[in-house]
Amino acid sequence: MALRKGISRGEFSVYYQPQVNLATEELIGVEALVRWTHPEIGIISPGEFIPIAEETGSIHRLGEFVLNEACRQNKAWQDAGVDPFRVAVNISALQFAQKDLPLIVERALESSGLEPEYLELELTETVIQSAKSAIETMQALVELGVHLSIDDFGTGYSSLSYLKLFPIDTLKIDQHFTKNIETDAKDAALVKTIIRMAHELGLNVIAEGVETKAQAEFLKAEDCNQAQGYYYNKPMPAEELDSFLYRYKKSV
Ligand code: C2E
Ligand code: MG
Ligand code: MG
Ligand code: MG
Fold it and tell me: Which residues belong to the signal peptide in this entry (predicted)?
C-alpha cells in the first residue's frame, strides 16, 4: 500500500502553524499538521489521506511518527533558546481508542526529552463515543502532564455535558464558524456563545481559520483568548518557522 510504503520511505513531514494570543499577537503554541510529499503526485493534504490511513490501519504508525517528530522538534526549538511554547498534535479517534496511547505518548516524551506541559493533544468530539472509557484514557494522559483540547468544537453530535466531565483545558472553535462571523449573524451568535461558555467553564478558547483582520477584531472584542489562521501564518515546515521564531525572540 502506497501510504505504508510512504511512511517507511520518509515521504511524510510535519508542518507547524503558529497559534497566537489575540490581544498581543504573541506566539503561544504551534499545531503540528502532517504532509505527504508523494514522489509522483507531489504534496497531498491530510484531508485526503488521513481517512485512508484510518481505513487501512496505517494511522497508528503515521500518528506515532507525527507525535515523535513534533516532540523532537519542539525540544530542539527549546534547546536553541527559543521561549518555550506548546506543540499541539492531532489524535485520530482510532488512535485514541487504542489501549496503549498513554504509553506511546509517554515514550515520545521520554525519547525527545520534552516536558509534558509543552505537549497538547487535540481530540475531536468523535472520540467521545464511549464517555466512560474516554474519561479513563484522558485521565491517563492528563496524569502524564500533557494538555488536552477539543478540536473542531461545535461540529460533532456529542452532548455538552461531556465538557464538565472531561479533563480538557481548551476548546478550538471550528473554522466553519469563524469563516462566517462577519456575514452570518447566527454563526456570530454561536461563536460568542461558545467563547462565553468556555470561559464560564474555566476553559481556554482558540478560534481556528482566522483569515481576516475583521474576524480577528470580532474575536478580540468577544474576549476570545487565542487564534490560529492564515491571517497570522500558514502551516510551514520547521525550518521556515525557525527564522520566524528567532526574529520573534529578538523582538521580545
Ligand atoms: P484540523 O486539526 O482542524 O487543522 C486545521 C486545518 O485548517 C489545517 O488543515 C490547517 O492547514 C487549516 N487552516 C489553518 N488556518 C486556516 C485558515 O485561515 N483558513 C483555512 N481555510 N484553513 C486553515 P490541514 O493541514 O489540511 O489538515 C486538515 C485536517 O487533517 C486537520 O484539521 C486534522 O483533522 C487532520 N490532520 C492533520 N494532521 C494530522 C495528524 O497528524 N494526525 C491526524 N490524526 N489528523 C491530522
Ligand atoms: Mg487540529
Ligand atoms: Mg480543527
Ligand atoms: Mg478539521
Answer: none
For the stretch 209-251, pLDDT in tens is: 999 999 999 999 999 999 999 999 999 999 999 887 876 555 4
Domain 2-242: CATH architecture, name and number where available: Alpha-Beta Barrel (3.20)
Distance of CA 89 to the CA centre of its chain: 5
Cell readout for 234 is 500558514
- Of 68, 172, 208, 226, the one to substitute when testing ligand 1's pocket (max ligand atoms within 8 A of C-beta) is 208
CA 78 – ligand 3 centroid, Å? 26
Q: What are the sequence ranges of the domains in the chain?
A: 2-242
Residue 201 sits at φ, ψ, to 5 deg, of: -90, 0
- Residue 153 is classified by DSSP as E
Q: Give the three-state DSSP class for 145.
A: coil
pLDDT of residue 252: 43
Nearest ligand 1 atom to alpha carbon 46: 30
pTM given for the model: 0.96
List, in order, residues 6 or more apart from 102 with CB less than 8 Å away.
137, 140, 141, 143, 144
Q: Which three cell numbers stand for residue 243?
A: 527564522
CA 10 to chain centroid: 22
CA atoms within 13 A on the CB side of 242: 10
Confidence at residue 248, expressed as pLDDT on a 0 to 100 scale: 57
Confidence at residue 148, expressed as pLDDT on a 0 to 100 scale: 97
* Residues of the chain falling short of pLDDT 50: 251-252
